[in-house]
Q: What sequence folds into this?
């Protein structure tokens, strides 16, 4: 055991030193290494045994994590030294050494963290606090005050990117596309359509922004209230309130006209209402109604919302199928969400997202093969030339974002031919993957790594109103406050410590560790509560258009505080009652 203990220390330290050359931010790796060393020390001191089943699960999870982190850092080991001045044997030796160091260090780190979590209660059933509604009112007022002050002082009437302006254009032209969710566009139209006839379009935008601020403040306050009722300490509730109030992405998103903001609120509310139902918190009819409404909003506000909810439904069927009422509500939500997104939109002649939008990652992988001069048959190259200008791929391919390649097909290619020959495209794609496996893997890594590996330097929030023909313009009430906000936002882009708060991958690691703890303790409520976030993550690993878009995972940052201490009260009560019956017999 002592030899394994010191081997683990060496492997973790060597891996951390090697990852200083990573393209990703080093801070999350450093935190993970420090925590892994702490877990290793605790595990060595406790010396607790582990079942064969748990050992297999931890070994498998640690190995998978080691493979992913090694692939994410292919830039370190793929070309460790120049092949022009070193022999091929020496290059292969260096490649092998780097791969072993990263894999071994990651394996020991993840193994010890999961082992430690397995023997420390995650989401223990503490006595519920009789908190009262001050745990809602105080956070709500604090958060609302911060968001509203910054909004009026610096960013009135709202923040609007090209996507937001496109939605306004659809509202006034009546030509709708579900590329931006139709129902969110219609909801936005409730505020914007009547505004020009009365007080101007800026007022309509401002009323929508204030409504969104109210929704986000109320959602976060409801999270704090539920945390207090689950038994979280007052200190944790205060810290969570401050986190919601001062994190720049929460502030900036609260008045940004994006569907991702209300989507994040709906996912969070769905999780919270589910936890309240499983723990008998509050009034059951209110919780069921809140769960149904927030679930439906989740399904229709993003293209991957329905996909994620179906995965959550499958988890509920497997783990809590005895709750027939909840299962029926979820099934009805899926059916209604499908009807609203397909038959209803078809009858309204709403243009669906185009074909290439759903092929972001396959197109990136094929473009990468062409870009690197990979192995493709003449037949496949001929098919590819039917839908795009193959010779222009070298000038347009960007490993981090799929828009340049997709726009080559949209603007200059033949998307109709692609849609009509989807079977041929899929066969070409499979052959390309088979003939160029490593190129395809590295292209996938570059297209998705921001969602599961450490963190990356990439924009997080929008900060202005895009130029438009509608007269929507930004008004700054306080130049001093704007100067303060500019410096405050700058810190989160440039300070290595504050950058940690915006690292998507590092926060995904948090959720995965929490999820592992719930699995270890068979906490079914906690497992299902984590599933919406993990399902959204899975959808991005399949079809992410950008490698590290913060707003796509914003729901995780909204729900994160409550995920770490979810109890499974109904199951605990049932087990206690069963034990009492056995004792009486």
A:
């Amino acid at each position: 055991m002592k030899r394994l203990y010191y081997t683990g220390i060496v492997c973790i330290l060597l891996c951390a030193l090697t990852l200083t050359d990573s393209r990703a931010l080093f801070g999350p790796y450093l935190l993970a290494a420090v925590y892994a060393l702490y877990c290793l020390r605790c595990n060595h001191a406790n010396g607790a045994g582990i079942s064969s089943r748990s050992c297999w699960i931890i070994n498998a999870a640690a190995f998978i994590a080691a493979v992913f982190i090694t692939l994410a850092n292919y830039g370190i080991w793929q070309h460790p030294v120049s092949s022009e001045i070193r022999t091929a044997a020496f290059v292969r030796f260096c490649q092998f050494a780097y791969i072993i160091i990263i894999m071994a260090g990651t394996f020991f780190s993840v193994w010890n963290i999961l082992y430690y979590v397995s023997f420390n209660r995650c989401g223990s059933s503490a006595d519920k606090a009789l908190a009262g509604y001050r745990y809602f009112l105080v956070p709500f007022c604090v958060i609302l005050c911060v968001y509203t002050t910054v909004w009026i002082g610096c960013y009135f009437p709202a923040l609007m990117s090209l996507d937001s302006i496109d939605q306004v254009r659809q509202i006034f032209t009546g030509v709708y596309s579900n590329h931006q969710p139709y129902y969110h566009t219609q909801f936005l139209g409730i505020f914007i359509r009547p505004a020009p006839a009365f007080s101007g379009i800026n007022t309509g935008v401002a009323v929508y922004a204030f409504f969104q601020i109210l929704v986000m403040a109320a959602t976060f306050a409801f999270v704090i209230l539920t945390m207090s009722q689950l038994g979280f300490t007052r200190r944790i509730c205060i810290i969570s309130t401050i986190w919601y109030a001062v994190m720049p992405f929460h502030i900036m998103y609260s008045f940004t006209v994006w569907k991702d903001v209300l989507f994040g609120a709906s996912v969070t509310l769905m999780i919270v209402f589910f936890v309240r139902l499983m723990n008998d918190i509050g009034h059951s009819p209110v919780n069921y109604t809140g769960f149904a409404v927030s679930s439906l909003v989740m399904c229709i506000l993003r293209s991957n919302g329905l996909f994620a909810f179906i995965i959550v439904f499958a988890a509920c069927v497997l783990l809590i199928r005895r709750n027939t009422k909840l299962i029926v509500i979820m099934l009805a939500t899926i059916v209604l969400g499908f009807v609203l997104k397909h038959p209803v939109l078809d009858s309204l002649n709403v243009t669906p997202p185009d074909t290439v939008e759903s092929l972001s990652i396959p197109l990136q992988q094929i473009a990468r093969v062409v870009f690197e001069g990979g192995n493709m048959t003449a037949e496949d190259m001929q098919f590819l030339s039917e839908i795009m200008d193959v010779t222009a791929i070298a000038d347009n391919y960007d490993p981090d974002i799929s828009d340049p390649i997709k726009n080559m097909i949209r603007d200059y290619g033949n998307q109709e031919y692609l849609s009509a020959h989807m079977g041929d495209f899929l066969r070409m794609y499979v052959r390309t993957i088979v003939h160029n496996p490593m190129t395809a893997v590295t292209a996938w890594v570059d297209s998705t790594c921001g969602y599961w590996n450490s963190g990356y330097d990439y924009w997080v929030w929008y900060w202005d109103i895009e130029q438009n023909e509608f007269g929507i313009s930004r008004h700054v009430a306080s130049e001093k406050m704007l100067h303060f906000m500019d410096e405050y936002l700058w810190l989160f882009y440039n300070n290595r410590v504050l950058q940690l708060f915006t690292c998507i991958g590092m926060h995904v690691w948090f959720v995965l560790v929490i999820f592992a703890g719930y699995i270890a303790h068979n906490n079914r409520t906690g497992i299902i509560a984590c599933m919406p976030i993990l399902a959204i993550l899975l959808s991005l690993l399949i079809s992410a258009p950008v490698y590290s878009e913060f707003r796509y995972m914003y729901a995780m940052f909204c729900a994160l505080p409550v995920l770490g201490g979810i109890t499974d009260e109904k199951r605990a009560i049932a087990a206690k009652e069963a034990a009492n019956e056995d004792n009486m017999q």
Observations:
- Confidence is low (pLDDT under 50) at residues 123-130, 575-580.
